[in-house]
Automatic annotation (TrEMBL):
Organism: Scytonema hofmannii PCC 7110
The protein's name: Heavy metal transporter
Residues of the HMA domain: 1-64
Xref: CDD domains: HMA (cd00371)
InterPro entries for the chain: Heavy-metal-associated_CS, HMA_dom, HMA_dom_sf
UniProt keyword terms in alphabetical order: Metal-binding
Length: 67
């Protein structure tokens, strides 16, 4: 499953690394691409959309349209 999410709280490469690590804790084989300038996270994983969103929120970020 490929998923692309808007994450307006991404500010730097450090944010990208934190998000990537958080997702890969839940699914080590996930392919994560964080576009810092575009403020998007694209994930290719077997995990559900909800699980991916929870990982991003757990990393301290906000997903547009998701609390």
């Amino acid at each position: 499953m490929a998923l692309k999410l808007m994450v307006p709280t991404i500010a730097c490469q450090g944010c990208a690394e934190t998000i990537t690590e958080s997702i890969q804790v839940m699914e080590p084989d996930a392919k994560v691409d964080v576009d810092v300038q575009g403020k998007t996270v694209t994930v290719e994983a077997k995990a559900s959309e909800e699980t991916i969103k929870q990982a991003i929120v757990a990393a301290g970020h906000t997903i547009e349209g998701y609390q």
